[in-house]
Each structure stands twice: as structure tokens, then as C-alpha cells.
Amino acid sequence: MQRPKLKNEEGDGTEKEAVYLRREIGLLPAVSFIIGMVVGSGIFIAPTGILMNSGSVGLSLLVWALSGVLSLFGALCYAELGTTFSKSGSDYIYVLETLGPLPAFLRLWAEYILIRLAGGGFLCVSGFWPLCGGAVLRPLCCSCGADQTSFVVAINCWSVTLASRAQVTLTFIKTFALLLIIIPGSNDFDLITLDKLPLAFYNGLYAYGGWFYLNFVTEEVINPNRNIPLAIICSMVTVTFLYVLVNVAYYTVLTPAELLLSDAVAVTFANRALQGLSSVIPILVALSCLGALNGGFIGSPRMLFVGAREGHWPAIFSMIHIRRHTPLPALFLLYPLVVLMLITGEIYQLINFASFADWFFITLATLGMLIHRYRFPLQPRPFKVPLLIGVSFTAVCFFIVGLSLYSDPWNTGRSFALTLTGVPVYYLTVHRYRLPRRWRRFFDYCCKQLQILLEVIQQEVQTC
Predict the structure, then answer these.
(1) Are 222 and 23 in contact (CB under 8 A)?
(2) Cβ–Cβ contacts within 10 Å for residue 1, how many?
């Protein structure tokens, strides 16, 4: 597809009409992006997992606080990686730069057959679970989730600016929902004495998951060397503070037995403490999940975009719309996969072992950071996390991955096996292109027709 000759803006060399992903994400959208990804449905619907595994209220609050600290450590590691490597793509690009192409391809493969597929579908259904009456009306939940997904894809296809503004708005809404729970529940509270070490950190870290998503869009962040570390620190401190206060409010109003029996803790809490506003909480939960889903559709397609640009995915997915400047093909690939996940009804089964793949590659990314720092000590690092934090977080990640393999070998084993199915795909399509020539010609023809249909081309300005 031919483009008209580019014009320079006031002769300064800037290509005014060039097609590329522009830096449009400032500090506030960056903070909103991280908070919007971390605060999904978990804090409103299912804090029971930590209480169930910890065995006491006091210990569960300690787990929430320490999980926040550990997540902050991981986010700081990603702040160093994001300022050391200027490309978008998050842990895919970090594993590629530090550990090589095969593990990086497996990260890309796992993202689109496990992690984002299950996570997106889970957010769609769980967001409408309180509104639709749970499993009784699951088809209605799935229908609402499909509409939610369509809306999010539409705004992400239309404009990066519109998507980031929507993320800011939804983040303010979900923060209001947290405050709505905190204020009436911040009265008297007695802390139960700690008596044992639980295995509840896995659930806690999952609830804080999403702190690494800003690194998916590094190339679109304004002044990333300043804004990435600042956004990470501000957002994670804020989320940890709010999470602990929300759980204090839960335990102030509800007994541990009531909390364990509740399928939607925020709704149970509202029925008890916010009787006049009890119908508002399910709507706020749905909007919270919408924010997390929107953040996922902002970030995750960028990994596919960068993977295609690096030659690990078909080139069509490294193209962007000539007018909207959005990665249209990558968004369109993700959309039907999430909708299909809603229809199959296997979301909760997938979410259990998708977490293993996620944490496995987070471990590889932070391990790669330590190896890269050792091998290239003189490389400029605009933000450098203390070595103790990097080593501690990597060790905790190894513990989490190893513990999950021990405690749930069936789900984690299947996750590992599905990730390894990417090995033959890598050697057939990336390492050496072994597909028959006829297949290649047909595939190239389809890609060309898609390029014309979607009005997309390769970016014309290097952004990293």
C-alpha cells in the first residue's frame, strides 16, 4: 500500500504525517493505567482466598500488605528494565534482549494461548457476576462480557488518546468504589495475633497483578525515563494502601465466617453497611473490570506488535492504521480469542494455570535483568533498582513457581506443557522457515489482502 510523500513540520525533520505509534501517555494516564490494571474484580469479589489460606484475619491483612511490598519490588525491577530497554513489549522484549529468542517466543506464545486469553475472559465474566446472579445466569454474564469486550476493542481501535482517557476515568471510578467501602468500615477493628506462616501469598500477588503492564507501551510513554519509575511507585503505594484499608473495612463489618461464605464480598458488604447504595456496588465492580479489560487491550496487543516487528509473528501484526495510528491487526486477533473463551465456559479452569505461565516469565525477566547487569555493568541505566530488591524478588518468584508446581501439579503441569508447544512452532516458523512454498505464497497473499482491507502499513518512524 503506497503512501503519499511525507511532509516535514516546519522543516525540523519531524514527519508530521508519518504513521507510527506516538508518545501520548503522560504521567496521569500512566498511573491510571497501572492502577486500572491492578484493581480488577479480585478486591471486590474474592478476598476470601487469602483468608482461607492464612487462617486468621490478622495474618490475612499482613499478607495483603506484604504482597503489595513484593509487587512494588517487582514493579521497580520492571522500571529498571523499562528504562534500560526502550522498546515496548514488556517481559517479551526483556527476555529477548537478555536470554535469547526461544524463551522470548515462548513468552509471546503463552500470552496468546494462555495468559491474555484466560485473563480477558475472566474479567468479562467476573465483572458481571454480581449483576447477573452468578452461575444461574452465566449465559447473560457471557453476553454482557462480549458486549464489554466489543466496546473496549472499539475505543482502542479508534484512538490511543481515547483509550487512555477512558482508562483515567475508569480508574477514578474504581478508586471511588474502594473509598465507598473504606469510609463506612473504618471504625473499631481488633487484629488477630499471628500464629503461622500461610501459603496465601500466591493469591495476594495475583490480586496485585498488572503492575507490569505499563512496560507494554514504553514507546508511547512521554519521557519514559522519568514517568515510568514515578508512575510505578505512585500507583503501587496507592494500591497497597487502599487494598489494606478495604480489607480492614470488610473485617470490621463482616465476620470471617460471613466473608468465607460470600461469593461477592463487596456486594455482601454493601448490603450490610451501605443499604441505600447496595445496588451501586455491582455496577462499580463491572466498571472496575471494564477498566482492567481496557488496560489489557491497550497493553497486550503491543506485545504482539513488537513480536511481529522482531520477526517472531507474522508481519501483518506489526502494522498500524494509517490514520488512527493504532495496532489494528493485533487488536483484532485478540478480540475473537477472548469472545471464544467466553463461549466455551472454561475460563476458571484456564485462569488457574495461566497464572503459572505469567509468573514463570516474570521470573525469567527479572533473572535476565540480573544477568544483563552482570554481563554489561557499564550500560547506561537511567533507573537502577537496588540489587537486594532485584535478588529478593527473583527468589520469591522462583519460590512461587516452584510451590505452585508442588501444590497443583495438574494445572501447572498443563500450563508448562502448553507453553512448550511453542518450541516446534518456533523451529518451524522462526528459527528456520520450513513451511512449504505453497503455504507461504497463500499466507503472503492473505496478509496483503488484510493489509488493504484494514488500511494498515509498517510504522514509518522508529520509536525505540
Answers:
(1) yes
(2) 12
